[in-house]
Specification:
Elements lengths: L2 E5 L4 H12 L3 E6 L7 H9 L5 E4 L5 H11 L3 E4 L6 H6 L1 H19 L6 E7 L23 H20 L3 E6 L2 E2 L8 H10 L3 E5 L5 E2 L2 E2 H13 L4 E6 L5 E2 H12 L4 E5 L14 H7 L7 H16 L1
Parallel strand pairs: 1-2, 1-4, 2-3, 4-5, 5-6, 6-11, 7-10, 8-13
Antiparallel strand pairs: 9-12
Helix pairs in contact: 1-8, 3-5, 5-6, 7-9, 7-11, 9-11
Bound molecules: nicotinamide-adenine-dinucleotide.
Length: 314
Amino acid sequence: MQRVLVTGGAGFIGSHVATALIARGDHVTVLDNFNDFYDPALKRENARGLRGATIVTGDIRDENLVSRLFTEGEFDGVIHLAAMAGVRPSLLDPLHYQDVNVRGTVILLEELKKRPKSRFVFASSSSVYGSNDKVPFEETDDIHHPVSPYAATKRAGELLCYTHHHLYGIPTTALRFFTVYGPKQRPEMAIHKFVKAAFEKKPIPFFGDGSTRRDYTYVDDIVDGVVKSLDHCAGYEIYNLGESATTSLSELVSIIGEATGEKPILDKQPMQPGDVLITYADVSKAKRMLGYDPKVPVREGIERFVRWYRSRAV
Ligand code: NAD
């Protein structure tokens, strides 16, 4: 049994991770501020599902609260998922993204430095690769040109994790997630938004000519990678967690059309600032070092998502 703090544990990925940890007998504390980036009622519902976890409503930037939690919790590990997510909204409020994603991360690291045996798993993002055209992306690739404030905050988080690891010896792993989807996915993310629009027979916002490609990762595969990272956390490592396959926007829309049985209506719009042409993970390091083994191809994952979506609608 491990004592694990999951920040952002009421969110999409966090609630799946917390569920997996509880299922194997870990004691989970969730710290989440239930903000209104999307409907907080969905996060409350996620938190209610975490039977046996300690749920703390609060902000990672509240230094007194964080200090008290660490003292009382004696955590063996921290999985830090709380963040302002999303590329496009980060262009509208870069200061807030910086404050939560960078300052908030340092506040946690400052607590960890007093307990350098606690392991730290940090949720980074494929967006740190920016507009790199060498694919698939490897952890050793150039990551000096983030093209959105969100991406820059995630790269900054990785750097600060390294610095705290270097200075205080905190075992730290940064995980670069590639577009995660599955039940409970954030409602503003493409697959969720497109499935909803398809069922409601509303237009799907379709940016660019449909050729942009994403590496879509089913949430169960991400959870597997996160839990393995916690268990193998030593030194300072960065891992890509993706499916290592890409799907174009046009292909995605057609798979969603087939899975929903609806004919998608497209609302064609230009590419958005901050968007990149492709994300594509080389996951050989995670396979080799963690035994990470993504299993759910995008067609099957979307069918599962649609089943979940339908089950909520009845
Ligand atoms: P999410 O928004 O569903 O989860 C984040 C949670 O953090 C939310 O419940 C939110 O209320 C909480 N939170 C935000 N600010 C907080 C604060 N100041 N204090 C306490 N709690 C706070 O998002 P998600 O999709 O589950 O993403 C989880 C993590 O993974 C994030 O760090 C995100 O940047 C990263 N990530 C996600 C994806 C993806 O495709 N979903 C891809 C790359 C990286």
